[in-house]
Amino acid sequence: MSESSPDDLTRAVEACLFAAEEPLTREQISAHLGEADVKDALASLQEQYAKRGINLVERGKRWQFQTAPDLAHLLRREKDQLRRLSRAATEVLAIIAYHEPVSRAEIEAIRGVQTSGGTLDVLMEAGWVRVAGRREVPGRPVIYATTPEFLTHFGLDSRKDLPGLAELKAAGLLDPVDDAYEDLMEQKATKAEDSDAQDDSEVAEPLENRDESA
């Protein structure tokens, strides 16, 4: 592909995206086309499709064709099956979106209440949340993050487009998750120290009594 003209490369990128079963990253497209530099081709296609019935969009660094927003209503079925999230699921999804990657303990620290495993299962079944690995701390808890499908569903190019992130942080309504996690670990450490101290005092007394009897 390196010897192709820009027009040929643009057509090849277009064909690649149409044939793909799921959105593709720029690197994946490039790999399909012999490691060609597809940056300019993507920009050209995005401009060409900007005023057409379908648009080329980038969601979470993945490229795909989608129906133009102003025509989407024409293709909707009369009976839409809407995903209705509980208040708890909505809160958990928002926390993950704003703080990812985040563990269940961190989510609970921010919400101030326990989070049901079923709530996370619902979000993962919807395709909006995924397991993103484990945090390198004692216990290595599982951490969660949003998916490209989450961005697509809510019409976001990236998490930077989440509404009101800067304003919420400036108002102090979104505490950094690291602080919440550190507070949680400090509380656990304090409880552990208190428990160890109590155990030591219980063991020390009979030992002292043995010394006196000897």
List the topology elements.
Blueprint lengths: L5 H14 L4 E2 H7 L6 H10 L5 E6 L2 E6 L4 H4 L11 H13 L2 E2 H8 L5 H9 L3 E6 L7 E5 L1 H6 L11 H6 L6 H37 L1
Antiparallel strand pairs: 1-3, 2-3, 4-6, 5-6
Any descriptors?
214 residues, alpha+beta, Arc Repressor Mutant, subunit A, 2 domains, three-stranded antiparallel β-sheet, elongated, disordered C terminus
Describe this structure as you would to a colleague.
This protein has ten helices and six strands; from the N terminus they run αβααββααβααββααα. It is α+β, with helices and mostly antiparallel strands and 214 residues long. It folds into two domains: 6-71, Arc Repressor Mutant, subunit A; 87-178, Arc Repressor Mutant, subunit A (Orthogonal Bundle). The strands form two sheets. The protein has a three-stranded antiparallel β-sheet. It has a three-stranded antiparallel β-sheet with strand order 4-6-5. Strand 2 and strand 3 (62-67) form a beta hairpin. It is elongated.
